[in-house]
Amino acid sequence: MVRSAGMLKLLCITLLATYLPLVFAENAKILRATVESTLVDASTVASIEKLAGKKVSAPNKNLPLKLLASVETGKNQTFTDVLVDTGSGILWVGGQKRYKPGRFSKRLGDFAISYAVGFASGPAYTDRVKIGDAIVKSQIIGAANHTEGNNIVLSVDGILGLAPSGANSGQIIGHESTPNFVESLVKEGSIDKPTFGIHISPLNPKTGKAISTGEITFGGVDEDRFTGKIVWLPTNTLDSLRWAFNVTSFSFGTLKLMDPAALTARTDCGVSGIGVPFDFLYEILAAVPGSTITGSDDWFGLAFPPNQTASTLPPLRLGLGEKNKIFELPASLYLIPKALYAPLGLTKNLTYSWIGPGGSGSFMLGQQWLQGLYSAYDMERRRIGFALPKN
Ligand SMILES: *[C@@H]1O[C@H](CO)[C@@H](O)[C@H](O)[C@H]1NC(C)=O
Ligand SMILES: *[C@@H]1O[C@H](CO)[C@@H](O)[C@H](O)[C@H]1NC(C)=O
Ligand SMILES: *[C@@H]1O[C@H](CO)[C@@H](O)[C@H](O)[C@H]1NC(C)=O
Ligand SMILES: *[C@@H]1O[C@H](CO)[C@@H](O)[C@H](O)[C@H]1NC(C)=O
Ligand SMILES: *[C@@H]1O[C@H](CO)[C@@H](O)[C@H](O)[C@H]1NC(C)=O
What we know:
Elements lengths: L5 H22 L3 E11 L6 H4 L10 E12 L3 E9 L5 E3 L12 E10 L2 E14 L2 E10 L2 E4 L1 H4 L3 E4 L19 H7 L7 E5 L14 E5 L7 E9 L9 E4 L1 E4 L2 E4 L4 E6 L5 E4 H10 L4 E4 L4 E5 L11 E5 L4 E5 L1 H4 L16 E2 L2 E5 L2 E5 H4 L3 E5 L4 E7 L2
Parallel strand pairs: 3-9, 4-7, 16-24, 17-23
Antiparallel strand pairs: 1-2, 1-11, 2-3, 4-9, 5-6, 6-7, 6-8, 10-11, 10-25, 12-26, 13-16, 14-15, 14-20, 17-24, 18-19, 19-22, 20-21, 25-26
The structure holds 2-acetamido-2-deoxy-beta-D-glucopyranose (5 copies).
The site of one 2-acetamido-2-deoxy-beta-D-glucopyranose has 4 residues, from loops.
Protein backbone atom coordinates (compact mmCIF):
# COMPACT_ATOMS: atom_id res chain seq x y z
CA MET A 1 0.00 0.00 0.00
CA VAL A 2 1.24 3.48 -0.85
CA ARG A 3 1.35 5.84 2.09
CA SER A 4 -0.27 9.17 1.42
CA ALA A 5 -0.59 12.30 3.48
CA GLY A 6 -2.83 15.31 4.01
CA MET A 7 -5.71 15.82 1.65
CA LEU A 8 -5.08 12.68 -0.24
CA LYS A 9 -5.28 10.67 2.94
CA LEU A 10 -8.50 12.37 3.92
CA LEU A 11 -9.92 11.71 0.50
CA CYS A 12 -8.90 8.11 0.75
CA ILE A 13 -10.53 7.72 4.11
CA THR A 14 -13.72 9.31 2.82
CA LEU A 15 -13.68 7.13 -0.24
CA LEU A 16 -12.95 4.07 1.81
CA ALA A 17 -15.72 4.85 4.25
CA THR A 18 -18.16 5.25 1.39
CA TYR A 19 -17.09 2.36 -0.75
CA LEU A 20 -15.65 -0.13 1.67
CA PRO A 21 -18.77 -2.29 2.03
CA LEU A 22 -19.19 -2.40 -1.73
CA VAL A 23 -15.53 -2.99 -2.43
CA PHE A 24 -15.44 -5.73 0.17
CA ALA A 25 -18.50 -7.43 -1.22
CA GLU A 26 -16.96 -7.37 -4.68
CA ASN A 27 -13.44 -8.29 -3.65
CA ALA A 28 -14.21 -11.07 -1.25
CA LYS A 29 -14.81 -13.63 -3.96
CA ILE A 30 -15.42 -16.65 -1.83
CA LEU A 31 -16.35 -19.97 -3.32
CA ARG A 32 -17.76 -22.71 -1.13
CA ALA A 33 -17.69 -26.47 -1.13
CA THR A 34 -19.24 -28.77 1.43
CA VAL A 35 -17.14 -31.43 3.11
CA GLU A 36 -18.41 -34.34 5.12
CA SER A 37 -16.88 -36.28 7.96
CA THR A 38 -17.94 -39.83 7.47
CA LEU A 39 -16.91 -43.32 8.31
CA VAL A 40 -16.32 -45.03 4.99
CA ASP A 41 -17.88 -48.46 4.89
CA ALA A 42 -15.32 -50.78 3.39
CA SER A 43 -17.90 -53.29 2.26
CA THR A 44 -18.72 -50.83 -0.53
CA VAL A 45 -15.08 -50.26 -1.34
CA ALA A 46 -13.97 -51.58 -4.68
CA SER A 47 -10.38 -50.54 -5.09
CA ILE A 48 -9.14 -50.24 -8.63
CA GLU A 49 -6.98 -53.28 -8.08
CA LYS A 50 -10.13 -55.23 -7.42
CA LEU A 51 -11.78 -53.72 -10.48
CA ALA A 52 -8.79 -54.85 -12.48
CA GLY A 53 -9.42 -58.37 -11.22
CA LYS A 54 -6.34 -58.44 -9.00
CA LYS A 55 -6.34 -60.02 -5.58
CA VAL A 56 -5.79 -57.57 -2.76
CA SER A 57 -5.83 -58.10 0.95
CA ALA A 58 -9.35 -57.27 2.07
CA PRO A 59 -9.61 -53.93 3.81
CA ASN A 60 -11.08 -53.91 7.28
CA LYS A 61 -14.85 -53.87 7.42
CA ASN A 62 -14.97 -50.23 8.40
CA LEU A 63 -12.49 -47.46 8.05
CA PRO A 64 -11.44 -44.45 10.05
CA LEU A 65 -13.27 -41.20 9.69
CA LYS A 66 -12.52 -39.22 6.60
CA LEU A 67 -13.14 -35.67 5.52
CA LEU A 68 -14.55 -35.98 2.03
CA ALA A 69 -15.39 -33.61 -0.81
CA SER A 70 -17.14 -34.28 -4.09
CA VAL A 71 -15.12 -33.61 -7.27
CA GLU A 72 -16.63 -33.29 -10.75
CA THR A 73 -14.28 -33.84 -13.67
CA GLY A 74 -13.52 -36.18 -16.58
CA LYS A 75 -16.36 -37.35 -18.81
CA ASN A 76 -19.17 -35.88 -16.67
CA GLN A 77 -17.95 -37.91 -13.72
CA THR A 78 -18.50 -37.19 -10.04
CA PHE A 79 -16.03 -38.61 -7.57
CA THR A 80 -17.92 -38.32 -4.28
CA ASP A 81 -15.38 -39.62 -1.78
CA VAL A 82 -12.30 -37.47 -2.35
CA LEU A 83 -10.24 -37.06 0.81
CA VAL A 84 -9.44 -33.46 1.73
CA ASP A 85 -5.80 -33.41 2.79
CA THR A 86 -3.76 -30.42 3.97
CA GLY A 87 -0.78 -32.78 4.23
CA SER A 88 -0.21 -33.41 0.49
CA GLY A 89 -0.08 -31.30 -2.65
CA ILE A 90 -1.79 -32.74 -5.74
CA LEU A 91 -5.31 -33.70 -6.75
CA TRP A 92 -5.92 -37.18 -8.07
CA VAL A 93 -9.08 -39.17 -8.65
CA GLY A 94 -9.92 -42.67 -9.84
CA GLY A 95 -9.39 -44.62 -6.62
CA GLN A 96 -12.78 -46.33 -6.76
CA LYS A 97 -13.87 -45.92 -10.36
CA ARG A 98 -11.69 -45.17 -13.34
CA TYR A 99 -11.33 -41.61 -14.55
CA LYS A 100 -12.59 -41.25 -18.12
CA PRO A 101 -11.18 -38.37 -20.16
CA GLY A 102 -13.91 -35.92 -21.18
CA ARG A 103 -14.10 -33.12 -23.72
CA PHE A 104 -11.84 -30.80 -21.66
CA SER A 105 -9.21 -33.42 -20.83
CA LYS A 106 -5.69 -33.11 -22.18
CA ARG A 107 -3.03 -35.69 -21.46
CA LEU A 108 -0.04 -34.37 -19.53
CA GLY A 109 2.33 -37.22 -18.82
CA ASP A 110 2.08 -39.27 -15.65
CA PHE A 111 1.85 -38.80 -11.91
CA ALA A 112 3.10 -40.70 -8.89
CA ILE A 113 2.71 -39.83 -5.24
CA SER A 114 3.79 -41.57 -2.04
CA TYR A 115 2.06 -41.00 1.27
CA ALA A 116 3.21 -42.18 4.68
CA VAL A 117 0.57 -44.87 4.29
CA GLY A 118 0.41 -45.61 0.60
CA PHE A 119 0.94 -44.78 -3.01
CA ALA A 120 -1.04 -43.71 -6.10
CA SER A 121 0.03 -43.40 -9.75
CA GLY A 122 -1.24 -43.28 -13.31
CA PRO A 123 -1.61 -40.85 -16.17
CA ALA A 124 -1.98 -37.11 -15.55
CA TYR A 125 -4.27 -34.70 -17.36
CA THR A 126 -5.34 -31.11 -17.36
CA ASP A 127 -9.11 -30.97 -17.09
CA ARG A 128 -12.03 -28.91 -15.94
CA VAL A 129 -12.57 -29.57 -12.23
CA LYS A 130 -15.55 -28.50 -10.15
CA ILE A 131 -15.60 -28.69 -6.36
CA GLY A 132 -18.73 -27.10 -4.88
CA ASP A 133 -19.02 -23.58 -6.31
CA ALA A 134 -15.38 -23.55 -7.38
CA ILE A 135 -14.53 -24.33 -11.00
CA VAL A 136 -11.04 -24.52 -12.48
CA LYS A 137 -11.03 -24.66 -16.28
CA SER A 138 -7.62 -26.27 -16.51
CA GLN A 139 -6.47 -28.13 -13.41
CA ILE A 140 -3.70 -30.70 -13.39
CA ILE A 141 -5.09 -33.95 -12.01
CA GLY A 142 -3.86 -37.46 -11.61
CA ALA A 143 -6.05 -40.28 -12.96
CA ALA A 144 -5.01 -43.16 -10.76
CA ASN A 145 -4.77 -46.59 -12.31
CA HIS A 146 -2.82 -48.00 -9.40
CA THR A 147 -3.10 -47.46 -5.64
CA GLU A 148 -1.55 -49.34 -2.77
CA GLY A 149 -1.22 -48.98 0.94
CA ASN A 150 -3.55 -49.11 3.87
CA ASN A 151 -7.18 -48.14 4.25
CA ILE A 152 -6.58 -44.43 3.90
CA VAL A 153 -5.51 -44.64 0.30
CA LEU A 154 -7.46 -47.73 -0.74
CA SER A 155 -10.86 -46.60 0.45
CA VAL A 156 -11.11 -43.17 -1.15
CA ASP A 157 -11.95 -42.01 -4.65
CA GLY A 158 -9.02 -39.61 -4.71
CA ILE A 159 -7.16 -37.05 -2.66
CA LEU A 160 -7.49 -33.25 -2.83
CA GLY A 161 -4.07 -32.06 -1.67
CA LEU A 162 -3.99 -28.57 -0.16
CA ALA A 163 -0.43 -28.44 1.19
CA PRO A 164 1.62 -25.21 0.92
CA SER A 165 2.84 -24.00 -2.45
CA GLY A 166 5.73 -26.02 -3.84
CA ALA A 167 4.97 -29.17 -1.84
CA ASN A 168 4.22 -31.29 -4.90
CA SER A 169 7.52 -31.07 -6.75
CA GLY A 170 8.07 -34.04 -9.08
CA GLN A 171 4.69 -35.63 -8.40
CA ILE A 172 3.51 -34.74 -11.89
CA ILE A 173 6.48 -36.47 -13.45
CA GLY A 174 8.92 -34.06 -15.08
CA HIS A 175 7.41 -30.98 -13.41
CA GLU A 176 9.12 -29.10 -10.61
CA SER A 177 5.94 -28.09 -8.84
CA THR A 178 2.45 -27.51 -10.19
CA PRO A 179 -0.42 -25.25 -9.06
CA ASN A 180 -2.80 -26.94 -6.67
CA PHE A 181 -6.57 -26.36 -6.90
CA VAL A 182 -6.47 -23.11 -4.89
CA GLU A 183 -3.57 -21.67 -6.90
CA SER A 184 -5.37 -22.53 -10.14
CA LEU A 185 -8.48 -20.65 -8.96
CA VAL A 186 -6.28 -17.57 -8.45
CA LYS A 187 -4.51 -18.03 -11.78
CA GLU A 188 -7.83 -18.15 -13.62
CA GLY A 189 -9.15 -15.11 -11.73
CA SER A 190 -11.95 -16.93 -9.89
CA ILE A 191 -10.63 -15.83 -6.51
CA ASP A 192 -8.19 -13.06 -5.60
CA LYS A 193 -6.06 -14.67 -2.92
CA PRO A 194 -4.71 -18.18 -2.48
CA THR A 195 -6.39 -18.49 0.90
CA PHE A 196 -8.82 -21.09 2.14
CA GLY A 197 -10.72 -21.83 5.34
CA ILE A 198 -11.84 -25.18 6.73
CA HIS A 199 -14.76 -25.82 9.03
CA ILE A 200 -15.19 -29.40 10.21
CA SER A 201 -18.42 -30.44 11.89
CA PRO A 202 -18.11 -32.00 15.34
CA LEU A 203 -19.46 -35.51 15.79
CA ASN A 204 -22.55 -36.22 17.82
CA PRO A 205 -21.12 -38.00 20.92
CA LYS A 206 -24.06 -40.44 20.95
CA THR A 207 -24.37 -41.41 17.30
CA GLY A 208 -20.83 -40.70 16.10
CA LYS A 209 -22.29 -38.93 13.06
CA ALA A 210 -21.38 -35.40 12.02
CA ILE A 211 -23.76 -32.86 13.56
CA SER A 212 -23.74 -30.57 10.55
CA THR A 213 -22.05 -30.17 7.21
CA GLY A 214 -18.47 -29.02 7.01
CA GLU A 215 -17.24 -26.45 4.54
CA ILE A 216 -14.16 -25.29 2.68
CA THR A 217 -14.11 -21.70 1.44
CA PHE A 218 -11.71 -20.83 -1.36
CA GLY A 219 -10.51 -17.21 -1.61
CA GLY A 220 -11.03 -16.32 2.03
CA VAL A 221 -12.58 -17.41 5.28
CA ASP A 222 -16.22 -17.76 6.28
CA GLU A 223 -16.85 -15.20 9.01
CA ASP A 224 -20.05 -16.99 10.01
CA ARG A 225 -18.15 -20.09 11.04
CA PHE A 226 -15.99 -18.67 13.84
CA THR A 227 -16.06 -16.20 16.70
CA GLY A 228 -13.47 -13.58 17.58
CA LYS A 229 -10.38 -12.92 15.54
CA ILE A 230 -8.22 -15.37 13.68
CA VAL A 231 -4.81 -15.87 15.31
CA TRP A 232 -2.36 -15.95 12.38
CA LEU A 233 0.96 -17.78 12.78
CA PRO A 234 3.96 -17.85 10.46
CA THR A 235 4.66 -21.28 9.02
CA ASN A 236 7.99 -22.92 9.73
CA THR A 237 10.36 -22.52 6.84
CA LEU A 238 12.27 -25.66 7.85
CA ASP A 239 9.16 -27.71 7.20
CA SER A 240 7.89 -25.92 4.11
CA LEU A 241 6.11 -28.93 2.62
CA ARG A 242 3.52 -28.98 5.37
CA TRP A 243 1.36 -26.49 7.23
CA ALA A 244 3.80 -26.45 10.16
CA PHE A 245 3.85 -23.84 12.90
CA ASN A 246 4.83 -23.38 16.54
CA VAL A 247 2.68 -24.10 19.55
CA THR A 248 3.16 -21.84 22.57
CA SER A 249 1.67 -23.88 25.41
CA PHE A 250 -0.18 -27.12 26.05
CA SER A 251 -1.98 -28.55 29.05
CA PHE A 252 -4.29 -31.36 30.07
CA GLY A 253 -6.53 -29.86 32.73
CA THR A 254 -4.23 -28.63 35.52
CA LEU A 255 -1.32 -30.68 34.16
CA LYS A 256 0.90 -28.12 32.41
CA LEU A 257 2.79 -30.14 29.87
CA MET A 258 4.67 -27.27 28.33
CA ASP A 259 5.69 -23.88 29.58
CA PRO A 260 5.47 -21.14 27.06
CA ALA A 261 8.14 -22.29 24.61
CA ALA A 262 8.03 -23.51 21.07
CA LEU A 263 7.23 -26.99 19.85
CA THR A 264 6.20 -27.62 16.28
CA ALA A 265 2.78 -28.66 15.10
CA ARG A 266 1.10 -29.28 11.77
CA THR A 267 -2.46 -29.62 10.59
CA ASP A 268 -3.40 -32.68 8.62
CA CYS A 269 -7.11 -33.08 7.99
CA GLY A 270 -6.31 -36.19 5.94
CA VAL A 271 -5.92 -38.16 9.18
CA SER A 272 -8.41 -38.47 12.00
CA GLY A 273 -6.41 -38.31 15.22
CA ILE A 274 -5.27 -35.84 17.82
CA GLY A 275 -1.49 -36.19 17.81
CA VAL A 276 0.55 -35.05 20.81
CA PRO A 277 4.29 -35.47 21.37
CA PHE A 278 5.24 -38.87 22.83
CA ASP A 279 6.40 -37.49 26.20
CA PHE A 280 3.10 -35.73 26.71
CA LEU A 281 1.15 -38.83 25.81
CA TYR A 282 2.97 -40.67 28.60
CA GLU A 283 2.43 -37.82 31.05
CA ILE A 284 -1.32 -37.86 30.42
CA LEU A 285 -1.22 -41.64 30.77
CA ALA A 286 0.49 -41.32 34.15
CA ALA A 287 -1.92 -38.61 35.31
CA VAL A 288 -5.04 -40.75 34.88
CA PRO A 289 -4.67 -44.07 36.76
CA GLY A 290 -5.85 -47.05 34.77
CA SER A 291 -5.14 -45.46 31.37
CA THR A 292 -3.44 -47.40 28.66
CA ILE A 293 -2.12 -47.08 25.13
CA THR A 294 -3.83 -49.58 22.95
CA GLY A 295 -5.09 -50.06 19.44
CA SER A 296 -6.81 -51.92 16.66
CA ASP A 297 -6.14 -52.10 12.93
CA ASP A 298 -7.95 -48.81 12.47
CA TRP A 299 -6.89 -46.84 15.48
CA PHE A 300 -4.01 -46.53 17.95
CA GLY A 301 -3.84 -44.25 20.96
CA LEU A 302 -4.77 -43.41 24.51
CA ALA A 303 -7.68 -45.08 26.31
CA PHE A 304 -8.90 -44.19 29.78
CA PRO A 305 -10.40 -46.58 32.36
CA PRO A 306 -14.18 -47.02 32.09
CA ASN A 307 -14.81 -44.90 35.21
CA GLN A 308 -13.65 -41.85 33.23
CA THR A 309 -16.17 -40.03 31.06
CA ALA A 310 -16.56 -36.75 29.19
CA SER A 311 -17.70 -35.16 32.45
CA THR A 312 -14.77 -36.35 34.59
CA LEU A 313 -11.93 -35.73 32.12
CA PRO A 314 -10.41 -32.25 31.73
CA PRO A 315 -10.03 -30.38 28.44
CA LEU A 316 -6.88 -30.23 26.36
CA ARG A 317 -5.67 -26.65 26.05
CA LEU A 318 -3.53 -25.51 23.17
CA GLY A 319 -1.91 -22.06 23.36
CA LEU A 320 -1.05 -20.33 20.08
CA GLY A 321 0.72 -17.16 19.06
CA GLU A 322 2.76 -14.58 20.92
CA LYS A 323 -0.16 -13.83 23.18
CA ASN A 324 -0.64 -17.52 23.95
CA LYS A 325 -4.31 -17.49 22.97
CA ILE A 326 -5.87 -20.62 24.45
CA PHE A 327 -7.94 -23.02 22.37
CA GLU A 328 -9.78 -25.61 24.41
CA LEU A 329 -10.74 -29.07 23.22
CA PRO A 330 -13.25 -30.52 25.73
CA ALA A 331 -13.28 -34.24 26.52
CA SER A 332 -16.58 -34.56 24.64
CA LEU A 333 -14.61 -33.79 21.45
CA TYR A 334 -11.47 -35.82 22.16
CA LEU A 335 -13.30 -38.98 23.26
CA ILE A 336 -14.36 -41.40 20.55
CA PRO A 337 -18.18 -41.65 20.38
CA LYS A 338 -19.21 -45.10 21.71
CA ALA A 339 -21.17 -45.74 18.51
CA LEU A 340 -17.84 -45.83 16.66
CA TYR A 341 -16.15 -48.41 18.93
CA ALA A 342 -17.40 -51.42 16.98
CA PRO A 343 -16.67 -49.94 13.52
CA LEU A 344 -13.15 -49.03 14.65
CA GLY A 345 -12.59 -52.48 16.15
CA LEU A 346 -12.34 -51.18 19.75
CA THR A 347 -13.54 -54.03 21.91
CA LYS A 348 -12.21 -53.51 25.44
CA ASN A 349 -14.16 -52.02 28.33
CA LEU A 350 -12.35 -48.68 28.13
CA THR A 351 -13.10 -45.03 27.40
CA TYR A 352 -11.29 -44.59 24.10
CA SER A 353 -9.93 -41.23 22.93
CA TRP A 354 -8.71 -39.85 19.59
CA ILE A 355 -5.46 -38.83 21.34
CA GLY A 356 -2.44 -40.58 19.93
CA PRO A 357 1.25 -40.06 19.15
CA GLY A 358 1.98 -37.00 17.01
CA GLY A 359 5.65 -37.70 16.50
CA SER A 360 8.73 -36.84 18.49
CA GLY A 361 8.36 -33.33 19.87
CA SER A 362 5.52 -32.57 17.51
CA PHE A 363 1.77 -32.06 17.55
CA MET A 364 -0.45 -33.23 14.72
CA LEU A 365 -3.81 -31.51 14.44
CA GLY A 366 -5.85 -34.10 12.61
CA GLN A 367 -9.53 -34.01 11.77
CA GLN A 368 -10.78 -34.59 15.32
CA TRP A 369 -8.69 -31.74 16.66
CA LEU A 370 -9.71 -29.46 13.81
CA GLN A 371 -13.39 -29.96 14.61
CA GLY A 372 -12.70 -27.86 17.71
CA LEU A 373 -10.87 -25.16 15.71
CA TYR A 374 -11.65 -23.13 12.61
CA SER A 375 -8.50 -23.24 10.47
CA ALA A 376 -7.40 -20.84 7.74
CA TYR A 377 -4.54 -21.17 5.26
CA ASP A 378 -2.80 -18.33 3.45
CA MET A 379 -0.58 -19.73 0.71
CA GLU A 380 0.70 -16.33 -0.38
CA ARG A 381 1.87 -15.06 2.99
CA ARG A 382 2.72 -18.56 4.18
CA ARG A 383 0.77 -18.33 7.38
CA ILE A 384 -1.86 -20.41 9.09
CA GLY A 385 -4.68 -19.13 11.26
CA PHE A 386 -6.98 -20.48 13.94
CA ALA A 387 -10.18 -19.25 15.55
CA LEU A 388 -12.82 -20.65 17.83
CA PRO A 389 -15.56 -22.28 15.79
CA LYS A 390 -19.12 -21.01 16.10
CA ASN A 391 -21.36 -23.94 16.86
C1 LIG B 1 -21.87 -33.93 -20.27
O1 LIG B 1 -22.97 -33.16 -19.83
C2 LIG B 1 -23.28 -32.10 -20.69
C3 LIG B 1 -24.33 -31.23 -20.03
O2 LIG B 1 -25.25 -32.00 -19.32
C4 LIG B 1 -23.71 -32.62 -22.04
O3 LIG B 1 -24.02 -31.56 -22.92
C5 LIG B 1 -22.59 -33.46 -22.63
O4 LIG B 1 -23.00 -34.06 -23.80
C6 LIG B 1 -22.16 -34.52 -21.63
N1 LIG B 1 -20.94 -35.13 -22.15
C7 LIG B 1 -20.73 -36.41 -22.16
C8 LIG B 1 -19.42 -36.83 -22.73
O5 LIG B 1 -21.50 -37.21 -21.71
C1 LIG C 1 -1.20 -46.92 -15.70
O1 LIG C 1 -0.68 -45.67 -16.11
C2 LIG C 1 0.70 -45.72 -16.44
C3 LIG C 1 1.15 -44.30 -16.67
O2 LIG C 1 0.43 -43.67 -17.68
C4 LIG C 1 0.91 -46.63 -17.63
O3 LIG C 1 2.28 -46.68 -17.94
C5 LIG C 1 0.38 -48.00 -17.28
O4 LIG C 1 0.46 -48.83 -18.42
C6 LIG C 1 -1.06 -47.93 -16.82
N1 LIG C 1 -1.45 -49.23 -16.32
C7 LIG C 1 -2.66 -49.74 -16.53
C8 LIG C 1 -2.91 -51.08 -15.92
O5 LIG C 1 -3.52 -49.16 -17.18
C1 LIG D 1 9.55 -21.96 16.05
O1 LIG D 1 10.36 -22.18 17.17
C2 LIG D 1 11.70 -22.44 16.85
C3 LIG D 1 12.41 -22.83 18.14
O2 LIG D 1 12.23 -21.89 19.13
C4 LIG D 1 12.32 -21.21 16.20
O3 LIG D 1 13.65 -21.46 15.84
C5 LIG D 1 11.51 -20.90 14.94
O4 LIG D 1 11.97 -19.72 14.35
C6 LIG D 1 10.03 -20.75 15.27
N1 LIG D 1 9.31 -20.65 14.03
C7 LIG D 1 8.42 -19.70 13.79
C8 LIG D 1 7.78 -19.74 12.44
O5 LIG D 1 8.09 -18.87 14.61
C1 LIG E 1 -10.86 -45.62 37.95
O1 LIG E 1 -10.43 -46.92 37.60
C2 LIG E 1 -9.00 -47.08 37.65
C3 LIG E 1 -8.67 -48.43 37.07
O2 LIG E 1 -9.59 -49.39 37.42
C4 LIG E 1 -8.54 -46.90 39.09
O3 LIG E 1 -7.14 -47.05 39.14
C5 LIG E 1 -8.91 -45.50 39.54
O4 LIG E 1 -8.58 -45.31 40.87
C6 LIG E 1 -10.40 -45.23 39.34
N1 LIG E 1 -10.64 -43.83 39.54
C7 LIG E 1 -11.65 -43.37 40.25
C8 LIG E 1 -11.75 -41.90 40.35
O5 LIG E 1 -12.43 -44.11 40.78
C1 LIG F 1 -16.72 -51.96 32.51
O1 LIG F 1 -15.99 -51.75 33.69
C2 LIG F 1 -16.72 -51.08 34.71
C3 LIG F 1 -15.76 -50.74 35.85
O2 LIG F 1 -14.90 -51.80 36.13
C4 LIG F 1 -17.89 -51.94 35.15
O3 LIG F 1 -18.65 -51.27 36.13
C5 LIG F 1 -18.76 -52.21 33.93
O4 LIG F 1 -19.80 -53.09 34.28
C6 LIG F 1 -17.94 -52.81 32.81
N1 LIG F 1 -18.77 -52.88 31.61
C7 LIG F 1 -18.77 -53.92 30.82
C8 LIG F 1 -19.65 -53.82 29.62
O5 LIG F 1 -18.09 -54.92 31.04
